[in-house]
Amino acid sequence: MTGFAAIGLDHGHINGLVRECRDAGGVLAGYATHSDTLAEGFEAQHAPATRRSEDELLADPDVALIVSAAIPSERADLAVRAMRAGKDVILDKPGVIDLDALETLRAVQAETGRRVRVHYSELESNAAARTARRLVREGAIGTVLHYNGTGPHRLDQGKPRPDWFWDKDRNGGILNDIASHQIAQFLVYSGADRASIRCARVASRGQHDGFEDMGDMVMEAGQAHGYGRVDWFTPPGMPVWGDGRIVLTGTKGMIEMRKYVDPAGEGPGAHLILTDDEGPRRIDCPDAPDFCANALSDAVEGTETAMAQATAFHLMELAVTAQRMAEEAQ
Q1: Is there a contact between 2 and 299 (Cβ–Cβ < 8 Å)?
Q2: What's the rounded Cα separation, in Å, for the pair 12 and 92?
Q3: Which residues, in sequence order, are CB contacts of 281 under 8 Å at separation 6+?
Q4: Alpha-carbon 234 to chain mean position
Q5: Among 104, 156, 276, 304, which residue has the fewest nearby CB atoms (within 10 Å)?
Q6: What string of DSSP letters covers 189-231?
Q7: Is 8 helix (H, G, I), strand (E, B) or coil?
């Protein structure tokens, strides 16, 4: 069994990462955090868990993989330290918040031969998204021509957001942060190796001083076009944190994903509707996550089954590019 450690618990996505690694057979060798409050919450979810220093965990020969949801502006530096200590890394999104940090990651990855990827939970951990990926690869809707993806989020989660959440210099901005999910989805569903951002916008509608709470972008990959929109306007009455949806248009059919809820319909859960020559029908979503399982194996075997390293860097670059493009257009 492969040992892994969690360093940086600042975003709640760390809990999903740890659960998926444990479900895949990984052994949690410990965790490190600057916050006693975060430590208490982490141990409540992942007992038994031992709090250790970052230095201890990076020096532990039984730890092959580091997972992190540190403050976004701190993730690249952590990944550098981990790779130089001989560890593979999974970062929560966004992996980096500027291109200088990305170039550093590229250089250290080339220097060490270790792998650093970003975990896009809306793609890798959602049953509808994963089932759709399989259906697309099986040719269920022919060649994908268009992607339309929305990622609304709830701003009020019942407890105060940390200071870094409101600071774009630390969180990376709305497109680099949450729209990185839509970028990853578009690239995967298009089946392309490369994509480009054609235009992008961000806006602040006054929920918090200067905070970007809406953004959208247009993408292109070969013959596939895509549109992604994200916001922080999920209403209190929605039974989940956001009604995330994807519509894929192909040459032979369409797929609609209501990834977390079918409002006023079948309710919370992963929902997928396939429409082809036989008509529309709901499809069960049995496909389980395997990203963390593959990453654990990659850390030991030196393979790239979770995600090609070039793809991981390309997705990081696209997210930063979309954010920059939107800011320059203001």
Answers
A1: yes
A2: 10
A3: 273, 274, 275
A4: 19
A5: 156
A6: HHT-S--EEEEEEEE--SSSTT---EEEEEEEETTEEEEEEEE
A7: coil
For residues 202 and 214, the answer to whether their CB atoms sit within 8 Å is: yes
**How many residues are listed for the chain in this entry?**
330
Q: What 3-state DSSP class applies to 146?
A: strand
Task: Return d(Cα 10, Cα 29) in angstroms, integer.
Answer: 19
pLDDT tens, 166-175? 999 999 999 9
Q: What confidence tens digit (pLDDT) does each residue in 12-49 have?
A: 999 999 999 999 999 999 999 999 999 999 999 999 99
Q: Do 3 and 29 form a contact (C-beta atoms < 8 A)?
A: yes
Do 97 and 320 form a contact (C-beta atoms < 8 A)? Answer: yes
Helix (H, G, I), strand (E, B) or coil at 184: helix
Cβ–Cβ < 8 Å for 300, 294 = no
How far apart, in whole angstroms, are the C-alpha atoms of residue 73 and residue 179?
17
Q: How many CB atoms lie within 10 A of CB 85?
A: 17
Distance between CA atoms of residues 321 and 257, nearest Å = 27
Q: Taking CA 167 as the corner, what is the angle to CA 165 and CA 171, rounded to the nearest 5 degrees?
A: 60
Inter-residue contact 78 to 70 (CB < 8 Å): yes
